[in-house]
Automatic annotation (TrEMBL), chain A:
GO terms of biological process kind: L-leucine biosynthetic process
Organism: Haloferax elongans ATCC BAA-1513
Protein name from the UniProt record: 3-isopropylmalate dehydratase
Pathway assigned to this chain's UniProt record: Amino-acid biosynthesis; L-leucine biosynthesis; L-leucine from 3-methyl-2-oxobutanoate: step 2/4
Source superkingdom: Archaea
InterPro entries with a match to the protein in the record: 3-IsopropMal_deHydase_ssu, Aconitase/3IPM_dehydase_swvl, AconitaseA/IPMdHydase_ssu_swvl, IPMI_Swivel, LeuD
Family of this protein: Belongs to the LeuD family. LeuD type 2 subfamily.
Automatic annotation (TrEMBL), chain B:
Record gene name: leuC
Region feature (Disordered): 290-317, 421-445
Coiled coil: none
HAMAP family: LeuC_type1
Annotated Pfam families: Aconitase (PF00330)
Protein name per Swiss-Prot or TrEMBL: 3-isopropylmalate dehydratase large subunit
Molecular function as annotated in GO: 3-isopropylmalate dehydratase activity; 4 iron, 4 sulfur cluster binding; isomerase activity; metal ion binding
Task performed by this protein: Catalyzes the isomerization between 2-isopropylmalate and 3-isopropylmalate, via the formation of 2-isopropylmaleate.
Example GO BP: L-leucine biosynthetic process
Cofactor: [4Fe-4S] cluster
Enzyme Commission number: 4.2.1.33
Cofactor note: Binds 1 [4Fe-4S] cluster per subunit.
Length: 202, 473
C-alpha cells in the first residue's frame, strides 16, 4: 500500500440529530441489505426500516428531511451502535455522508469500526447532547466543528468540551487509524510471538 | 487495573508490540470467517496487493445466508449464491480450510469452532461476528471484529486493541429446576444493562457457572456482547478438558492434550487476582427469564410483572415505552400467556445437543399448537447428525416442528427463515431488536430452549415448570 493515511484533526459540517438510546446496528443497516460482497451503495439503505414503510414510502425521519440531506455530523444518544459487529453500519452512514458522530456513548465494536474508517466518535453528557440535537433541529443549515485534537465541539458561536478516547485521538490526529501497514511492518515480532505460544506448531 | 486474571495473562502472552496510538498489537491464535463480513476484507487485501499471512490460522464456514431447507447448489437466492461463491473463491485462493456444507462439518461459526477443537483455552480468537465472545467459555479471549479488522488479521494475524477492565461476575448457589444458563445471562444483562459492559471484559465465575456444562457456558459467554462486553470468559477446568478431549483436534493429536494442559492451567485467573469490579448474583433465586421488550436487557422473570417505564431509571424510560408499544405488552402483567405465532429453536446461543435434548423432553408426547409455526435449526451439521442418531428429529417432527439444516436462520433473518408481518416469536436466539428476525413489525421474545418448546406446544409464553408430565396413553 502506498497511499498515505490522512490525519484527521477535525470534522466540520451541518448536523443531523438521531434520537434514542440503544440504537442497534440492525436498525442502522437491516440484515437483508448485507447480502452483498462490497460496501458500495450501502448509503441509501442506512436506517432503511426507520425511513421507509412497507411500501417503501418515506416515513418521518430526520434523514428523509430535505434540510438534513447535506448533513455530515450525526448527533446521537446513549449506547449507539450496539449489537452486531457489522462494519456495514458505519459504512452505510459514511456513504450516506457522515464524517463524524457526536453522542452520549457508543458500543465498543461500532466505535472501533468507525475508527477504522476514520470517523471520529466523540462523547459528551446527556444535557450537552440534547441541547445540541435541539439546536441542530432549529439550525439545520449551520455548521458544527468537531475538533478531535482539542476535544471540543463548536457551534452557535460557543465551544463545548467533549471526550475523545485517547487511542482514537492519537490514531486520528497522527494518521495511524488504518493499522494494516503499521502492523505489517512488525512481521518479525509477530512471528516471534507466534513461536512463543505453546499451541502454535512451529 | 486488573492483575493476575486470565485476561491479563492471555493478553500478555499475545502482545506483539505497543502501537504509537497506545493500543496493543495482539496476535490472533484463531481467526474464524464467514460469508457476510469477510468478502470486503479480501477485496481490500487485493486492492493493497497483500497476501493472507497465516492462512493455516484462519478457518471458514458458511452460516448467515445459507438456506436451511434446500441446500443444493446453486442456491435459489442469487444473492446468497453469489456470497457463497465469493467465499469459496477466497478460501481456495488463500488456502484456508473451509467447513462447507458438503463436508458434514458446516454450521454456525461459534458451534463448529468448539466442536472441531479449533477453540482452545488460552487462545486469542477473533471473527467478524459479535457473538465470537462464545468461545470464551473455553478460557479463550474471544471477541468480534469489524471488516477492516478482518483485513488486518488476514494481512498480519494481529489486531490493534486497547486493554479493557475486568469485571468478575460471580453466580453463587445452585440453579433451580427449569432454570438454565440462558436465564442466568438474561438476568445479568437485565441487572447490569445493555451498555453496562462497555469497556469491560466479563469473567463468569462461581458455583452456578462451574456446575454448567460447556454448552451452558457457551450460552452465557455468547451473550456477553448483549450486555456491552466485547468478551466474556470462564476459567478452564476439568469440564473444559473433558470436552476438549472429544474434539477432532485432540482425538487426532492426543499428545497435544498433555503438552498443552500446563499452559491452560497457567492462564487460569489466580486465586488472589485483582479485578476492576466484582458483581455477585445469587443463582438460586433465579427463575426462567423472558424478554418483554426490544433489547436483551428488557427481561423479566416468568412470574414477575412487566415493569412500568416510570419505575425504570430515567434513561431507560423512553426506550421502554417504545418497546412496550411495539410488543403490545402492558406493565403489571406477566409475560405468561403472550401469544406467539412462531417458535424458533436455534442460533449460536442455543442450538447445541444439550439444548435440543432438553427441548425434546418437553416436546415429547405433545403437539405444536395449531396456530404456531415451529422450527428446529441445529447449530451444525454434526449437531444435526448427532440429534438424528438419538432420534430427536423424530420427536420434533412428530410434534409438528420443522427439522431443518444448520445455519443462523431466523436469528437474524438473512435467509428465507423470517417472521412475516407482525408475527410474534418465542426464540432461543440472542437479540430481540426490532426487525431482527426479518420483519420490521415482528416481535421477538427471548427465552431458554425448554421455554421455547413449552411456548410451541401451548401457543403462548408458558412457564415450562408448570407443564404437567405427559402420561403415556
Amino acid at each position: 500500500m502506498t497511499d498515505e493515511i490522512p490525519a484527521i484533526d477535525s470534522a466540520s459540517g451541518t448536523g443531523v440529530p438521531i434520537r434514542g438510546n440503544d440504537i442497534d446496528t440492525d436498525q442502522i443497516i437491516p440484515a437483508r441489505f448485507m447480502k452483498v460482497v462490497t460496501f458500495d451503495g450501502l448509503g441509501e439503505f442506512a436506517f432503511f426500516d426507520k425511513r421507509y414503510d412497507e411500501h417503501d414510502d418515506p416515513k418521518d425521519h430526520p434523514m428523509n428531511e430535505p434540510h438534513f440531506q447535506e448533513a455530515s455530523i450525526m448527533v446521537v444518544n446513549a449506547n449507539f451502535g450496539c449489537g452486531s459487529s457489522r462494519e456495514h453500519a458505519p459504512q452505510a452512514l459514511m456513504r450516506w455522508g457522515i464524517d463524524a458522530i457526536i453522542g452520549e456513548s457508543f458500543a465498543e465494536i461500532f466505535a472501533g469500526n468507525c475508527l477504522a474508517l476514520g470517523i471520529p466518535t466523540v462523547t459528551a453528557d446527556h444535557d450537552t447532547i440534547v441541547e445540541l440535537q435541539d439546536w441542530v433541529d432549529e439550525n439545520p443549515g449551520a455548521d458544527i466543528d468537531v475538533d478531535v485534537e482539542n476535544e471540543t465541539v463548536t457551534y452557535d458561536e460557543k465551544t463545548v468540551d467533549v471526550t475523545v478516547d485517547d487511542a482514537q485521538r492519537k490514531a486520528l490526529t497522527e494518521g495511524v487509524w488504518d493499522t494494516t501497514a503499521l502492523m505489517k511492518s512488525n512481521a518479525d515480532a509477530v512471528q516471534d510471538t507466534a513461536d512463543s505460544l505453546p499451541y502454535v506448531d512451529g | 487495573m486488573s492483575e493476575g486474571t486470565l485476561y491479563d495473562k492471555v493478553w500478555e502472552e499475545h502482545t506483539v508490540s505497543e502501537l504509537p496510538t497506545g493500543q496493543t498489537q495482539l496476535f490472533c491464535g484463531l481467526h474464524l470467517i464467514h460469508e457476510v463480513t469477510s468478502p470486503q476484507a479480501f477485496g481490500m487485501l487485493q486492492e493493497r496487493d497483500l497476501e493472507v499471512a497465516y492462512p493455516e490460522r484462519t478457518h471458514a464456514t458458511v452460516d448467515h445466508i445459507v438456506p436451511t431447507s434446500d441446500q443444493s447448489r446453486p442456491f435459489q437466492d442469487d444473492a446468497a449464491e453469489e456470497m457463497m461463491s465469493e467465499l469459496e473463491q477466497n478460501v481456495r485462493d488463500a488456502g484456508i480450510n473451509f467447513s462447507d456444507p458438503t463436508s458434514g462439518d458446516q454450521g454456525i461459526v461459534h458451534v463448529i469452532g468448539p466442536e472441531q477443537g479449533l477453540t482452545q483455552p488460552g487462545m486469542t480468537i477473533v471473527c467478524g461476528d459479535s457473538h465470537t465472545s462464545t468461545h470464551g467459555a473455553f478460557g479463550a479471549l474471544a471477541f468480534g471484529i469489524g471488516t477492516s479488522q478482518i483485513r488486518d488479521v488476514l494481512a498480519t494475524q494481529t489486531v490493534a486493541m486497547e486493554k479493557k477492565k475486568v469485571r468478575k461476575i460471580e453466580v453463587t448457589g445452585e440453579l433451580g429446576p427449569g432454570v438454565e444458563a440462558k436465564d442466568v445471562v438474561l438476568e445479568i444483562i437485565r441487572r447490569l444493562g445493555t451498555e453496562g459492559g462497555v469497556g469491560y471484559v466479563y469473567e463468569y465465575a462461581g458455583e452456578a457457572i462451574e456446575n454448567l456444562d460447556m454448552e451452558g457456558r457457551m450460552s452465557i459467554c455468547n451473550m456477553s456482547i448483549e450486555g456491552g462486553a466485547r468478551a466474556g470468559y470462564v476459567n478452564p477446568d476439568e469440564t473444559t478438558y473433558e470436552w476438549l478431549k472429544q474434539t477432532d483436534y485432540f482425538q487426532e493429536n492426543p499428545e497435544k492434550f498433555d503438552e498443552l494442559k500446563p499452559y491452560w492451567e497457567s492462564i487460569r485467573s489466580d486465586a488472589d487476582a485483582e479485578y476492576d469490579d466484582v458483581v455477585t448474583i445469587d443463582g438460586s433465586e433465579l427463575e426462567p427469564v423472558v424478554t418483554w421488550g426490544t433489547t436483551p436487557g428488557q427481561g423479566v422473570g416468568i412470574t414477575e410483572p412487566i415493569p412500568a417505564p416510570e419505575d425504570l431509571p430515567e434513561e431507560k424510560q423512553d426506550t421502554a415505552r417504545m418497546s412496550q408499544e411495539h410488543m403490545g405488552v402492558e406493565p403489571g402483567e406477566t409475560m405468561e400467556g403472550y401469544e406467539i405465532d412462531v417458535a424458533f429453536l436455534g442460533s449460536c446461543t442455543n442450538a447445541r445437543m444439550p439444548d435440543l435434548r432438553r427441548a425434546a423432553e418437553v416436546v415429547k408426547g405433545r403437539q405444536v399448537a395449531d396456530s404456531v409455526r415451529a422450527m428446529v435449526v441445529p447449530g451444525s451439521q454434526r449437531v444435526k447428525a448427532a440429534a438424528e442418531a438419538e432420534g430427536l428429529d423424530e420427536v420434533f417432527k412428530e410434534a409438528g416442528f420443522e427439522w431443518r439444516e444448520a445455519g443462523c436462520s431466523m436469528c437474524l433473518g438473512m435467509n428465507e427463515d423470517q417472521l412475516e408481518g407482525d408475527e410474534a416469536s418465542a426464540s432461543s436466539s440472542n437479540r430481540n431488536f426490532i426487525g431482527r428476525q426479518g420483519s420490521k413489525d415482528g416481535k421477538t421474545v427471548l427465552m431458554n430452549p425448554r421455554m421455547v418448546a413449552a411456548a410451541a406446544v401451548t401457543g403462548h409464553v408458558t412457564d415450562v415448570r408448570d407443564l404437567k408430565e405427559v402420561t403415556e396413553a
